[in-house]
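re the bet — no i am not wrong, look at it urself. input seq straight from the record:
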Amino acid sequence: MSERPKKTSVAIVILVISLILIVMAIASSGYSLVQVGEGIEVEDEAVFIGTDGTIPVEIYESYSVFVVDDYSCSDSSISIYEGEWEYFFEDCDPIMNEIGWDYVGYFSPDFNGDINIQSNVQIAIVDDSIYLERGGGFLIISGALCCFGVIGISLSIFILIFSKSDIENSSITIVSNDQS
């Protein structure tokens, strides 16, 4: 068996596997977008609902802060702190709004322990890991699958091009058995 068919068959196998990975990436991305599009129930997922209090937090976790949609971002005065350090960052991004709740910001503590909350309106705090559980993880997986698929397609094209040039550079001798 010659070297060219081996290279060609390897390239075709890599190409087929890569195309399957890309189809899986599209399916995973679609599933993720449907899950994320449904949103979350803020009241069910909240680690805190109220105006004043404390909650336990974990180091470097990210938390989203929402206000009841009767109020706007400019109506709210929110402070999430520990000691002298303020951790709340206002970020009134309407794309993050959920049914009945408007997104007003986030915080990410650099310690384990309790954090203090003060607000002039009712707020809800949600641990952002819920977004990974609700479809965000599939979006990350789809990105990895797509990346491996593109690398595989590139590799198979590379193999096909160089196996073709090997044939073009080799000489072929034709022996004729013609007896005229």
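see?? The chain has a mean pLDDT of 85. told u. also Residues 129-169 form the longest helix (41 residues). so pay up
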